[in-house]
């Protein structure tokens, strides 16, 4: 079995562990995969998610940053970065992250909601309310967004939603729209 095949097998094992909320096992498989495929943005992204889920925001931020550099349209990496920046108190960086997210994927209600929370903390109430109004318009089930704390898992119930048919970390909907051939592995 080649390194690419081994990395792929470990990666998909890790996704199963992420789905089962076994984040330490997912982290272990992703670190093994990373040794075999050291520049793979999907591994960086999913490792950042596994680390974030375990409360290791310093390492999560490092791997999310690598994933973002490799693909500036990587929503999952931006969500991890936004969560890490918010929890570190770097609200300006968090706002920049949420602005990028909402520009790339304007339909993510929780990103607008969390952007509103950051704006609220930055004492920009008119913008905060506008962002929260947008979140409510997208998802009416969001009630009293300014009283909500960001979920411990980050915006959008952060977890990779990688479909089995694609290697790069993408939301399942985006993966269905533009499947990536297996040769990119």
How does this structure look, described?
The protein contains nine helices and no strands. With 185 residues, it is mostly helical. It has one domain (3-176): Tetratricopeptide repeat domain (Serine Threonine Protein Phosphatase 5, Tetratricopeptide repeat, Alpha Horseshoe).
Task: List key phrases describing it.
single chain, Serine Threonine Protein Phosphatase 5, Tetratricopeptide repeat, 185 residues, mainly alpha
List the helices and strands and how they pair.
Blueprint lengths: L2 H17 L3 H14 L4 H13 L3 H14 L4 H13 L3 H14 L4 H13 L3 H14 L33 H6 L8
Helix pairs in contact: 1-2, 2-3, 3-4, 3-5, 4-5, 5-6, 6-7, 7-8
H-E string = HHHHHHHHH
> How many domain regions?
1
Helix-strand category: mainly alpha
Give the mean pLDDT: 81
- What Rg is obtained from the alpha carbons, in whole angstroms? 16 Å
Please sum up the structure shown.
The chain has 185 residues and is an all-alpha fold.
